[in-house]
Amino acid sequence: MAGKAVFRFSFGPWNIHDGADVFGPPVRKKVERAQKLALYKKLGFDGIQFHDDDVVSSVDVPHDQIVKEAKEMKRLIDGEGLIPEFVAPRLWEHPQTIDGGYTANDPKDREYALERSRKAIDIANIIGTRNIVLWPAREGVYVNESKDHRLASERFVAAVDMMLGYDKNIRVLGEMKPNEPMDHAYLPTTGHFLALCYKTVDPSRVGILIESAHALLAGLDPAIEMAYAIYHGKLWSVHLNDQNGLKFDEDRAFGAVNLKRAFDQVFVLWENDFGASGEFVGLDVKALRTQKDDVATRHLSNSRKIFLDLVEVVKKVDRKKIEQLRAARDYEELEYYIVSCLMGRA
After folding, report:
1. Is residue 255 included in any domain, yes or no?
2. Is residue 345 part of a domain?
3. Most CB atoms closer than 10 Å: which of 121, 237, 254, 260?
4. Active-site residue (options: 17, 21, 52, 54)
5. Is 54 marked active-site?
6. Is 329 inside any structural domain?
7. Taking the chain (346 residues) in consecutive chunks of 10 residues, what is each chunk's mean pLDDT?
8. Is 51 noted as a catalytic residue in this protein?
9. Any idea what the CATH number is for the domain that residue 95 is in?
């Protein structure tokens, strides 16, 4: 029943950055870790997202060092009153994951990915979250004949099974993306990951994180993808942002490109009581490279404000009118009505 939604917001420290991109160097001063943590509450955020090496300086060190650094991060986030949402093993940057992690052809590379995943789980336990997010960035191919695709699916499920067996409390959330960096991704959409969810040893602990831009890059609608995952009881997190067309992953501020599309996402989340079970509204947005140092967090605060403004629009929408227009199959008028609501004229 709609009306029970609870919206708490999170973002990852990588969303505050110096503006470097593949075409140019940094244009802003580096923001140190402690400075970033101190900004969360000021910007209206309660949750913090982590990659494994956002928590610790490196995972390729003795385990005692990992534990020590993770405990220090736990102390820091507790001091700021922040809730850790998830830990994601960063498997796409290491030399041993050039050919993928879980689906690599070399067994030594696959073992590196599995061991790093176990370390991510250890880190998650120390800082206090049960959520492990998998972005299978390099799980795919550049050259079609370079891998046995059936075997790749088997290996990916085996990797998730390993994680579920390693810790009986954790949950694994798949974050899908159809492009970048691979030509062909093995798990490009929500449906692909859900299908593998049900092949694991404990499907109840495998779910979905949907990013708006990733759905758009697959030529799909984020709101419909979210509703599909909700139907399965699997939408455990979202990364909201926006996207200009089918190109690289832009991570624009939420609602900045297509306000109606943003409304549709908020509508689905509100109508289906998202957050009532503790889920966060995650933002994964980049500051424009043109932003100066003193305004380089507005992409975060603005995205949150746009979301909350759209919540107010969603609340005021006349549900009876929507049902009447649906029943009459007057979809042009329905579309106009929604646009009128967004313009403040309905």
Report:
1. yes
2. no
3. 254
4. 54
5. yes
6. no
7. 88 97 95 97 98 97 98 98 98 96 98 98 98 98 98 98 98 96 96 97 98 97 98 98 93 98 98 98 97 97 98 98 98 98 95
8. yes
9. 3.20.20.150
